[in-house]
Design goal:
- There is one protein chain.
- By secondary structure, this protein is α/β, with parallel strands linked by helices.
- It folds into 2 domains: about 140 residues, no CATH class; about 150 residues, Nucleotidyltransferase, domain 5.
- It has 14 helices and 7 strands.
- The strands form 2 sheets. The protein has a 5-stranded mixed beta sheet, sandwiched between helices. Strands 1-2 form a two-stranded antiparallel ribbon.
- Strand 3 and strand 4 form a beta hairpin.
- The longest helix has 26 residues.
């Protein structure tokens, strides 16, 4: 039987699930499809159970392997030597994975030290200090890209969306002599993710009221550096001639939903007129491709249920870095699931040598 793949968007406990027909020989494909239409999702429970029961141990192992690739900044010889930067990234991500405050994370960090993954258990104030460093944002962004590469041969179709992470800070929204109201500030994560496994290939963190469409070019260009893109699906918020042209230049087909007032005039770009004509004359087929965008909602659902939909940091840069830590933790959890589901092998040393050689610097 030819291999086919069905994605369970929601699943249990926020984990991605991929079903392959060559692993399930008990029931024929037609019976499985009937159950899917009724609302139940087939699952390789053996692989799922193994991934869930071993996730924390494997998470620590993969996170250590990933952060050990980070070079240590040069010590200039003035004052006290800084902490090992790779270990600080490891500690910040472990704190995020546990979804604890920095104080409550100290005991777990000491346990990890006893296991030999780090050489020093940092004070909780040191963790907060490093979360607020600009270099941390640069390193976390590279680690997120690095963590997605083991799946670059699997992911061909991509989707994008944005979602907010609330903060403890508020701003004046309406202030006058008689009316005074406040609105909570939040950070917005603009994410490009794969459809099959929900791996995040690139993320941009902005203030809460930055429009989604402004981030499309960065998401598409960064993903195209390491992945062969065939389809990109997005909602109406990304619908514009410029955005469709950016996607088309990568060789991918842009399945971006059109607004009601979209017009096909001669002054429009060819890609706009072509996709609008396809949308109007083959709407059912267009929507089949477009509905892959629903997986973007699944990505944020997985992250927020597992690592929280808010950030604890109070400073803007630290808030951005905390969201990036959530994204990196999400990617590692996806890799753990696919190690059992698809049997992939992960070697970050080899990936760094092939993809990031001479690029992974802290200068």
């Amino acid at each position: 039987m030819k291999k086919q793949t069905h994605l369970d968007q929601w699943g249990v406990c926020g984990t991605p699930k991929v079903w392959r027909s060559d692993r399930m020989s008990i029931k024929p494909l037609k019976d499985i499809e009937k159950k899917v239409n009724k609302g139940s999702y087939p699952q390789d429970w053996v692989a799922y159970n193994l991934a869930q029961t071993q996730e924390k141990l494997l998470f620590i192992e993969l996170l250590h392997e990933l952060t050990s690739q980070i070079p240590q900044p040069k010590y200039k010889g003035n004052g006290r030597p800084p902490a090992n930067f790779g270990e600080m990234v490891f500690t910040c991500c472990l704190k995020t994975y546990l979804d604890f405050s920095s104080r409550r994370s100290e005991s777990d960090i000491k346990l990890v030290k006893q296991l030999g993954y780090i050489t020093h258990a940092s004070h909780f104030n040191t963790i907060l200090k490093y979360l607020n460093q600009p270099i941390m944002k640069k390193v976390l962004a590279k680690l997120i890209a690095l963590s997605s590469l083991p799946l670059k041969e699997i992911e061909k179709d991509f989707t994008m969306d944005a979602s907010g992470f609330s903060t403890a800070m508020v701003c004046n929204w309406n202030k006058s002599q008689k009316i005074h109201s406040e609105k909570r500030l939040f950070k917005k994560a603009h994410v490009m993710s794969g459809v099959k496994t929900n791996i995040i290939t690139h993320v941009e963190i902005t203030d809460g009221y930055v429009h989604d469409s402004l981030m499309l070019e960065k998401l598409v260009v960064s993903t195209n550096k390491h992945f062969r893109m065939e389809e990109v699906s997005a909602d109406k918020g990304y619908s514009s001639e410029k955005n469709l042209q950016i996607i088309a230049k990568t060789g991918a087909v842009p399945y971006v939903l059109f607004k009601i007032n979209a017009k096909k005039t001669k002054d429009r770009l060819p890609i706009w007129r072509t996709m609008l004509l396809f949308f109007r004359e083959n709407k059912e087929e267009f929507m089949e491709h477009y509905h892959k965008r629903n997986n973007a909602e699944s990505v944020f659902s997985m992250m927020k249920r597992k690592f929280g939909g808010f950030v604890r940091a109070r400073k803007s840069l630290a808030q951005e870095n905390e969201v990036l830590c959530k994204v990196l933790c999400h990617n590692i959890c996806v890799l753990i699931q696919e190690m059992f589901e698809l049997g992939i092998k992960i070697d970050f040393e080899e990936i760094v040598r092939d993809e990031f050689m001479c690029k992974f610097r802290l200068d």
